[in-house]
Design a protein that fits this description.
alpha/beta, TIM Barrel, 327 residues, binds ligand PBG, binds zinc ion, 12 strands, 39% helix, 11 helices
Length: 327
């Protein structure tokens, strides 16, 4: 049977019909909001390449989170931002129980116990060379880094984090973190692993926001090579074998094929990270009046769902939640 008996346009005739047959819906529950926290008080520093995104001191962050909570956004991811003087060769600030992330987690959980606090587990925001692990010669040494990542995760859990998200791309980090959490009594803290994380130019604005650009070389010896896709399945499979509870694809837009393959292959809870460079592009075009920001952003976030995402980590979380509420 085909035309003229079948007419695809019948079900597109009005909004009622379109809604009845709509396959994917973006919900506020799907969103996670990344935030940058820095020492001090009264600090509210806008990131120049990310309009609307700030480095906040804890007091200011707590204010910002008021709206996150009232909009019903379920969670945040915390990134620490410290000055050069607070960094060292081995990123001690990452696993200091009195570190900025740990203090932020405590303060957030105290004020908003119902908000899910996820921590990014990595060393690059705290190393003076800006790499995600320990440097030996001119390379990032895998195995000695694992111990520090595990310490970082345990320290976050001790501060009250609800979930940890390792973003370093060292081999074996999920095993190391899972074992350390379990040994320390945090067997119920889930791991959301940045499983397929690519060495991407789209992280540029984040590195300005977090002050975490590598001081020499780049991250291509540990993050994935953008042309590869089978490798993303192997990375994800390994993370699942090691005990990851949620897997993640990062960046988002240019990697939706990876997201779809991972969702189809593993049927695991899957997150996508709509990264800083994607946010910056939308903001720039919107500020020029070249795109309808609300429509473009909601269309894009819905497309992540269509491509298989259960969780969308996005700097647009607050605006998107407001737009969804408006209808
Ligand atoms: C740290 C980390 C990065 C991002 C999340 N965690 C930067 C990087 O790997 O260089 C990028 C997030 C973004 O661009 O929004 N390892
Ligand atoms: Zn890192």
């Amino acid at each position: 049977m085909s035309f003229p008996f079948i007419r695809m346009r019948r079900l597109r005739a009005n909004e009622h019909l379109r809604r009845m047959v709509r396959e994917h819906l973006l919900r506020v529950e799907d969103l996670v909001y990344p935030v940058f926290v820095t020492p001090g008080e009264g600090v509210r520093r806008e990131v120049s390449s990310m309009p609307g995104v700030h480095n906040f001191s804890i007091d200011q962050l707590l204010q910002e989170l008021q709206e996150v909570v009232s909009l019903g956004i379920p969670g945040v991811v915390i990134f620490g931002v410290v000055s050069e003087e607070e960094k060292d060769e081995v990123g001690s600030g990452a696993y200091d129980d009195e570190g900025i992330v740990q203090h932020a987690v405590q303060a957030i959980k105290e004020k908003y116990p119902q908000l899910m606090v996820i921590t990014d587990v990595c060393l690059c925001e705290f190393t003076n060379h800006g790499h995600c692990g320990v440097i030996k010669g001119d390379e990032v040494e895998n195995d000695s880094t694992l111990e520090l990542l595990a310490k970082t995760a345990v320290s976050h859990a001790k501060a009250g984090a609800d979930m940890v998200a390792p973003s370093d791309m060292m081999d074996g980090r999920v095993t190391a973190i899972r074992s350390a959490l379990d040994e320390n009594g945090y067997g119920n803290i889930p791991i959301m692993s940045y499983s397929a994380k690519y060495a991407s130019a789209y992280y540029g604005p984040f590195r300005e926001a977090a002050g975490s650009a590598p001081q020499f070389g780049d991250r291509r010896a540990y993050q994935m090579d953008p042309p590869n896709t089978d490798e993303a399945l192997r990375e994800t499979w390994l993370d699942i074998e090691e005990g990851a509870d949620i897997v993640m694809v990062k960046p988002g837009l240019a990697y939706m094929d990876i997201l779809r393959r991972i969702k189809d292959e593993f049927s695991y809870p899957t997150a996508i990270y709509n990264v800083s460079g994607e946010y910056a592009m939308f903001k720039a075009a919107a500020q020029k009046g070249w795109i309808d920001e609300k429509r473009v952003v909601l269309e894009t976030l819905t497309a992540f769902k269509r491509a298989g995402a259960d969780i969308i980590i996005t700097y647009y979380a607050i605006e998107a939640a407001r737009w969804l509420k408006e209808g």
